[in-house]
TrEMBL record, chain A:
Keywords: Membrane, Transmembrane, Transmembrane helix. This is ABC transporter permease. The keyword Transmembrane helix applies. The chain crosses the membrane at residues 18-37, 57-78, 104-132, 152-177, 184-203, 223-244. The keyword Transmembrane applies. It comes from the Bacteria.
Automatic annotation (TrEMBL), chain B:
One of its GO terms (molecular function) is ATP hydrolysis activity. Belongs to the ABC transporter superfamily. PROSITE patterns: ABC_TRANSPORTER_1 (PS00211), ABC_TRANSPORTER_2 (PS50893). Keywords: ATP-binding, Nucleotide-binding, Transport. The lineage of its organism: Bacteria, Bacillati, Bacillota, Bacilli, Bacillales. This is ABC transporter ATP-binding protein. InterPro entries: AAA+_ATPase, ABC_transporter-like_ATP-bd, ABC_transporter-like_CS, P-loop_NTPase. The keyword Hydrolase does not apply. Residues 7-235 form the ABC transporter domain. It comes from Paenibacillus mangrovi.
Length: 257, 307
């Protein structure tokens, strides 16, 4: 199992797509700098600084990370199936379940790497653009540096579960369709319909797109425990159902390419 | 005789929708065999190979490799096999060495030294650090075989190994197979529709049609059985043709000037010679055309299934 994970990570870190994703995130951060300069965006009432900039970026790039995850995950399953590389792994003495678990661990690593990169690079870009600043400022509230870092860490940690659940949706669709374009397309559709579903209060709490946008930023507001645990429960259900579906798919799948 | 059975397939069946692609197929490969698995496109060769390697789940039947049941003892069974199913697949952004390293990671007992060894066997040591994206098809096939050799398999399964290769590439692969069989005692299951190649390198062959194995045996025996073609050159072709057509052993006679090509249903060139001689037909030459696997294949697949 550990060898399989090692293989998956080796592939992830040798692919240009991961580094291209990092470049895209950097571009998003730079564009945020320009937006702030034009006073067109930014939710910090007081002038932004390097300490606060990661929070602005995290808040404004909720759907960028999932899109990149969808591309990388679709590549690791559907594209590998299409190119025949999945077949190569299955011709070795490894179980299909272990292969699925290695792919999930690899997806978790991608999520973590992209989030950490987003935060670190936004600290750098924010500082270069606005200077480090004396305090972290969010919604006109001032925090000390350590409180600001803790806030960023909480947002990053809370971003992981919804992104993993979203990645699990892509894994399931990739196994079902074995079509990289279809898998990425399904992910994009899910993100595109998110604002529409959020307009329906009765169902929005059960929608992954809504939870992806809300859960990570609960620490910025008066966090009600019910919101957090309720949201996490929805995410766990998503993850569990899609994991079970993926297990069934990979066990029964005939590899025909 | 008495060789250990390496691969045993019993009653293998696969249906896609309403179409039965493989139908109660039985197959047996012993140690030392180079088994040619013949069939036209769509006959069920690749589906059979996919079931033998666990990529496709059979609807019925069982596969045993080295005595291990593929379904319940998958890891032990597949450890004895190296395979290229259809085209060899690689990560084109990685070097040949890195591709093999990825595969070797999944085979706990394979060392880094073994990667160098198989690259040497496949004749790719010089290009080992080059990205696979820059490789020719022939080099990719050789790299595929290198990958299949990593775990020192007892059986290598190659699905259309010379597909798309130029004559030189084909020759290289054939030589590599012969070398591995002779020097390392590896058995092969080679699916192909290139009959001349199979005839050259295989010791046994099986023919599959519409998912059913319709003939199987040693290549020599298969070629010795069934029809025979006799070529006769005579100064009296009209009379000879008439006589030959009346003979019960003769299936058909075709004529080109003084030459008659006679298809018979067995080893009867001597009888035909006698028939013509006793009837006073002057024969210039009479010779048996050696039966090729190609002829055998067409006889069996276009006819009713009997060689």
């Amino acid at each position: 199992m550990s060898k399989l994970i090692q293989c998956e990570l080796f592939k992830v870190f040798r692919q240009k797509k991961l580094y291209l994703s990092m470049l895209i995130l950097t571009a998003v951060e730079i564009s945020a700098v320009f937006q702030i300069y034009r006073e067109a965006a930014g939710f910090t009432g007081f002038g932004p600084n390097g300490q606060s900039f990661p929070l602005i970026v995290l808040h404004n790039s909720t759907f960028f990370i999932p899109i990149l995850i969808a591309i990388l995950v679709a590549d690791s399953i559907a594209e590998e199936y299409r190119s025949g590389n999945l077949k190569n792994s299955l011709l070795c003495p490894v179980s299909r379940m272990d292969l699925l678990h290695a792919k999930i661990v690899s997806m978790f690593t991608v999520v973590a790497v992209l989030l950490i990169f987003l935060v670190l690079s936004s600290y750098v870009i924010g500082t270069l653009a606005f200077g480090w600043g004396e305090r972290t400022v969010v919604d006109e509230i001032f925090y000390t540096f350590s409180e600001g870092v803790r806030l960023v860490a909480q947002i990053v940690l809370l971003s992981v579960p919804p992104n993993l659940a979203f990645g699990m949706i892509v894994i399931f669709v990739a196994l079902l369709t074995t079509n990289p374009g279809g898998s990425i397309g399904a992910a994009l559709v899910l993100l595109a319909v998110s604002p529409l579903v959020e307009g329906i209060p009765q169902v929005r709490d059960f929608f992954i797109g809504y939870q992806m946008r809300v859960i990570p930023f609960l620490p910025l507001h008066d966090m009600a425990a019910i919101d957090l645990w309720g949201g996490l429960a929805v995410i766990i259900v998503y993850f569990g159902v899609l994991y079970a579906g993926s297990v069934m798919m990979i066990r029964k799948k005939d590899i025909l390419i | 005789m008495g060789n250990k059975i390496l691969l045993e397939v019993r009653g293998l069946t696969k249906t896609f929708g309403s179409r039965t692609v493989v139908d109660r197929l039985n197959l047996r490969i012993e140690e030392g065999d180079i088994y040619g698995f013949l069939g036209t496109n769509g006959s069920g060769k690749t589906t059979t190979i996919r079931m033998i390697t666990g990529l496709v789940h059979p609807d019925a039947g069982e596969v045993r490799i080295g005595g291990f049941h593929l379904k319940s003892q998958f890891k032990a069974a597949i450890s004895l096999v190296g395979a290229i199913v259809e085209n060899p697949a690689f990560y084109t952004y990685l070097s040949a060495y890195d591709n093999l390293k990825l595969t070797a990671n999944l085979l706990p007992w394979v060392t880094r030294k073994r990667i160098d060894e198989v690259l040497e066997i496949a004749g790719l040591s010089d290009r080992a650090k080059d990205k696979v994206g820059t490789y020719s098809l022939g080099m990719k096939q050789r790299l595929g075989i290198a990958g299949a050799l990593l775990n020192r398999p007892k059986l290598i399964i190659l699905d259309e190994p010379t597909n798309g290769l130029d004559p030189q590439g084909m020759k290289g692969i054939k030589e590599l197979i012969a070398q591995l069989a002779a020097e390392q005692g590896i058995s092969f299951l080679i699916s192909s529709h290139l009959l001349h190649e199979v005839e050259q390198i295989c010791t046994k062959a099986g023919v599959i049609r519409k998912g059913k194995l319709i003939a199987e045996g040693e290549v020599r025996q298969l070629l010795a059985s069934g029809e025979e073609t006799v070529e006769i050159v005579t100064s009296e072709p009209d009379k000879a043709e008439q006589l030959l057509r009346s003979a019960s052993e003769v299936i058909s006679v075709s004529r080109s000037q003084d030459q008659l090509i006679v298809r018979t249903n067995g080893d009867c060139s001597f009888k035909l010679n006698q028939l013509l001689m006793t009837s006073g037909v002057h024969i210039r030459t009479i010779s048996r055309r050696p039966r090729t696997l190609e002829q055998f294949f067409f006889d069996i697949t276009e006819g009713g299934g009997e060689p």
